[in-house]
Request: fold
Amino acid sequence: MKVALVNLCKIEDISLLSSFSSDISFLNENQIEYVDYASGKNTREDLLKGFHDALKDKTVGLVWFVQGGNSLISFIENIDWDLVVSSEKKFLGISDFTHFSMTAVSKGVKCYYGLALKKIKKYYSEDNLARISNFLKLISGQNIIPDENENYYSLDNIKITGGHLTSLIFMIEHYRINLKNTVLFIEHHYIPGENFDDLAYYIDQLLITIKENKPESIILGHTILFDENNNEINFNEINDFFSKRLVGTGIPVSSVDHFIKPILFG
Reply:
C-alpha cells in the first residue's frame, strides 16, 4: 500500500515550496511508495478533488496532510465524510489537521497526529528520519514489521482526540464533540509574540469549554514557546505550567513528545 500526499491546509501548489525537492527525496531515499495528489493544484476545487481522489485510490493505505496551515476549517463542510469513513484509510497530519482529525475520529476513523512532510529533513535527525520512515511504512501497510510501540503512541481500549489548542477548543464547542470516556491530547505552537500569559488565556478558554464536558484524562504534547531572547523553552517547563492550571479540574494529566511519537487518535 502507498502513502497519498494531500493538502487542504493551505491553498497553494506544494510543488512550488522551497523544500519540496528535499521533502520528496526523503520519501524516495527511504523507498516509501507514494502517490502525489497535491502537486500542481492551487485552487480550493482542485485540492479538494485531489483529496477525494486519494480516498478512492485502492492502492493507498495512508493519507498524509503534508503541512499545517489555516485553511482546513473552510473545507469541513465540503469534505465527503461518507467517503472518508467508507475508504477505511488512515490519516496523518499536524496543526490545522486538528479540524479534520477531530471530525474524523468522531465518526470512527483512525488518525495519527504529529508529523508533516514539509521541511522534514530540516527538523529531524538522521536517526529520527529512519524512525519516521518505519512509522510511515507500518501505518500505510508496506512490507515491514517494526516494533509498533517504538513508532507511535496509543492507549488500549480508550479513544484519544485533540490537537492544536486553539483549534480543538473551537471544534469541541462548535461541533459539540463529546469527551466522555475520551483522552484529550493538547499541544500548542508559537505564534509570533506569544508568551506564557497568552498560553494561560488559551488554557482558561479550554477550562470553560470542558467544564461540563470533561475528558477521562489529558495528555500534553510538545508545546513550543520562546523566551525574551528568542530561545525555545523546554516543553517540560511549559507542560508544568499547563498542569498547574489544570489542577482544579481533577482531570489526570500526563505528557508525551508527539514529535518523537505521533499520537494515534481514535
Q: What stands out?
A: The longest strand covers residues 60-65. The longest helix spans residues 126-140.
